[in-house]
Amino acid sequence: AEPRLVAVRATRISPRLTLVVLRDITERERVEQMRRDFVANTSHELKTPVGAVTLLAEAIESAADDPEQVRIFSSRLTAEASRLALLTSRIMNLSRLQAADELTDERDVAVDEIVASAVDAHAIQADSAGVTMVRGGKRGLYVRGDAQVLGEAIGNLLANAIAYSPEGSNVGVGVKLSEGVVEIAVTDRGIGIPEGDQERIFERFYRADQARSRRTGGTGLGLSIVKHAVQRHGGEVTLWSRPGKGSTFTIRLPAIAPPDDVPKKPKRRK
Ligand code: ADP
Q1: Which of helix, strand or coil describes residue 246?
Q2: Which residue has its alpha carbon closest to ligand 1 atom 25?
């Protein structure tokens, strides 16, 4: 965007010379606009499940004499309520990531631990989708940051990889070290992402058409959270994908030396 300059201070130095301090307000306006969009989008996205919950509750009330109907409406109500819970928790996480300047809980994080717990947390989802998660790559790597935030980012990639994969396929999580950078790659052999959507899927609430029709449970916030979480840690997330072939999302984070209290691998004696 073009810089928009406003004068914030003017000091007369001599009769012919005045010093003017200018500030570029484009960035501040951009942030402000983003915040307004976020509130507007969020309210819009919340209206649908809130409306559904209300309608289903009313339907249950008026179907009180018909146990079968009550059962059907109740299970749909439960599904809508859990979708609403997921949506609100993601909205809160995202706005926290966007708002705070500092990570609250920064420490040396063992990559193995956050990957393992993200994999564990998605075991049930993978199981019911008939997808096998395969972990591999380098062990013993560390990054600096908030383990919970990073774990959620990896978890969101896993949740997507599983959700957009066919039954019987594998989802891989690989870790490697490349020139001082830890790379965590989540690979699936699923539906893939059309070229035209690849840049936009990291935007809030953006979902590719195929995903919309396939999975109504999505929030469109998962990748936006991944992007913000990783950027917060001085890293980046990139995507490779071919429709019909699959996708690989790679998180890159600056590696740090293992903390002192971690026993170094004993050197094997010759
Ligand atoms: P959602 O809750 O819809 O999955 P995300 O922000 O996590 O929201 O993802 C945004 C969109 O990116 C998805 O709706 C889907 O279109 C696409 N997407 C994300 N991950 C994958 C994947 N592994 N395979 C295919 N499409 C994906």
Answers
A1: strand
A2: 192
Q: Exposed, middle or buried, 47 (CB in 10 Å: 0-12/13-18/19+)?
A: exposed
Non-local (6+) Cβ contacts of 270 within 8 A are none
In sequence order, what are the beta bridge partners of 10?
A: 20
Instruction: Determine contact, residues 159/222, Cβ cutoff 8 Å.
Output: yes
- Rounded to two decimals, the ipTM of the complex is 0.97
Mean pLDDT value across residues 152-174 = 96
Query: Could you please report the per-residue DSSP string of 37-80?
Result: HHHHHHHHHHHHHHHHHHHHHHHHHHTTT-HHHHHHHHHHHHHH
Question: Rounded distance, CA 138 to CA 140, Å?
Answer: 7
Mean pLDDT of the 140-159 span: 96
232-252 mean pLDDT: 96
Confidence tier at 217 by pLDDT (50, 70, 90): low
Atom of ligand 1 nearest to the CA of 215: 3
- Cα 176 from Cα 180, distance rounded (Å): 10
Average pLDDT, the chain: 89
CA of 238 to the centre of ligand 1 (A): 13
Q: Residue of the nearest CA to atom 16 in ligand 1?
A: 208
Q: What is the pTM of this model?
A: 0.81
The answer to whether residues 187 and 161 touch, using CB atoms and an 8 Å cutoff, is yes
